[in-house]
Amino acid sequence: MRTAILICAVIGGLSLAACSQKTEDHTAAATNEAGAATASATNDAVANAETAADNTSDAAKTAAENTEAAAGVAARKTDAAADAAAKTN
Known about the structure:
By secondary structure, the protein is mainly α. The protein has one domain.
């Protein structure tokens, strides 16, 4: 991100040195917009990464709960099968 801003600043500075006032104004505005867009994209990326991490954490918790519940069901069914087998002998 810093590299992109630095490149924009250098290009903007070089452009300003060789241009009319109108062109300088347009170049400065474009540089500002590029910097703002870069900052916005970075903020969005951070927010999206945080949301993804939260979703992954929630999914892992749900999977663990489901696994625990399935293990409990399997244990009860195993016990019931063992009891049924013991009664038939």
